[in-house]
Structure formats: structure tokens, C-alpha cells
Amino acid sequence: MDIKQLRALVTVAETGNVTRAAALLNIVQPAVSRQLRLLEEDIGAVLFDRGRHGMRLTEAGQTLVEYARRVLNEIDRARAEIQPSRGTVGGIVTIGLLPSTCDLLSSALVRSVAERYPGIRIRMSMGYAGTLQAWLEAGEIDAALLYDPKQTPSIQVQPLLEEGLWVVGLPAHGLKKDQPVSLVQLAGQPLILPSAPHGLRSLVEHAATLMELQLTVVAETNAMSVQKSLVLGGHGLTILPTIAVVDDLARGILTAAPLAEPTLMRKIVLAVPANRHTTTPVRCVVEILVESMKDTVHRGDWLGARWLGD
């Protein structure tokens, strides 16, 4: 098994066609077919179902493709770090961001990295906390923002901030940032919440159980964009950190008020692998990410947030 064979495998899997893969790899079609044949002989399993409609991965092929992508990504990162532009820090850095943080942080992060470290190529992956932690442990991302995960030997975390949860609705709901809303006031109101076992849903339901309240959940979704869309469509209220709706609040299409009695807080931490070396490019990007978050909190753009870091 060698790198050429793995590249052939991944390219054919993505294109579904040996001819198109050969064009992308800039080699002749028989060479691609030979690479696949040698790989199948080495693995001892058929990797593709070859039919009139193209090349489809077998179960064994799907498993190997996942590992092959990781191998190729690691090699690309190593090559970029070892051979950066002269006098610069270089490499590929993949950062995992929570959906609620992407809009506010991604642009500033890309801009600052480009200005300070032009040799670094940054990749951003968005996912919920559980997904990001799995990617981090599998080596698919270099660092991630998480919601205060359980202690595990595979990752190390640095607390960054605490953020409060807010009730979000249409302008007609009359929500104001200086007029907190209690959970009791939400009883009987139509609510749009994340699907279980999302951390925000767990926080809200636990608080409601302690207060012996029955919440009316009219819709559940695992996509924050759908949560906001349903609120904009007049289907009910939702509960989110304000960073998730900062642009909507500024435009006046949504209103929000802090959730109180009880006040529900979530802690955001920076997580990096504990069992892998943190490279210089990763440290540089992480430093910029933390600086950007700190500045956002201190400027007051992250409503309801309290900085915990240094």
C-alpha cells in the first residue's frame, strides 16, 4: 500500500468514475485501475462494485476510504508545515466551531490568520459539541470549541467563557435585553427547541423538571438555522445564546431577553488532543481564536457572556 494507491482510491470514490479520476490525478486510466487492483490485492478485499453506472464503494471500501482521507490529510499538513514559505509559519490547521459561534468568529479568525500567518491554510469544520469531540479524538480536526465536556484522557480543555441562554422571538413578542423572562412565563408558550440529547435541550428540560413545569415543544430540530427559521415563520419562541442571533437582533428581525429564574449558563472551552503533539501552526491559530473571543466578550458583542480565561 502506498500514497498513490490511496489517492487513487479516494479520487475514484469521490468521482465514481475511473476516467474522471484519471483526469484529476493527471495519469492514464489504466494506471488508476492498476493502483486499485494492487490495493485490493494488498487489503484482500474488493473495494468497489464495478457496474455500468460507475464505481460504487463496497462496505470494505467505505471503511478504507475514511482511513485513507485521514492519512492523506495528515501528509498534506506535514508537507505544508515542513516546507512553508521562507520566514513564515506554515501548515494546514483544521478548527472545529460550534454552530452558534461560526457567524461571529469565522470571518475575524480567517482575516487575522491571513494577516499574521499567511503561510497557514485554515480549515473550519462546524458541528455540535458531541460531533466535534468525536472528530477531535479521531484526529480529523486539530482543536475545537466545546461545551464543557466530561473529563476524558484523550483531550485537554481550557475554559474560555460562560454564556447565558436567552429567549428569542419575533419583534411582536416584545422581548427586551433588560427585562428577563422566567421559565414559568414560558410554560404553555409554543417552543422550538433542539432535539434531545442536545446539551441546550437537556439544560432546559432539567430546569423545567426541577420546577415541575410542563413545556410545550411544538417543533424539534438539530439545526440551529431551522430553529431561527421557525421562529421567523411565527411558530413560537426558542432558547439560544445571543451569539447565535447577534446579526438578527441588530437587524431588528428578532428580539431576545435573558432567561432567568433560573438563569441557565453554558461554559465554552477550547479543546485540543492530549495524545498528539500540538504543532506551531495549530498553536498560532488557537491563540488568535482565543484572542478574538476575548475581544468579542470585552466589547460587549457577546451578550450574556463572562470571560473565564486569562
UniProtKB/TrEMBL annotation:
GO terms for biological process: regulation of DNA-templated transcription initiation. Keywords: Activator, DNA-binding, Transcription, Transcription regulation. Residues 1-58 form the HTH lysR-type domain. InterPro entries: LysR_HTH_N (IPR000847), LysR_subst-bd (IPR005119), WH-like_DNA-bd_sf (IPR036388), WH_DNA-bd_sf (IPR036390). GO terms for molecular function: DNA binding; DNA-binding transcription factor activity. PROSITE patterns: HTH_LYSR. Belongs to the LysR transcriptional regulatory family. This is LysR family transcriptional regulator. It comes from Pollutimonas subterranea. The lineage of its organism: Bacteria, Pseudomonadati, Pseudomonadota, Betaproteobacteria, Burkholderiales.
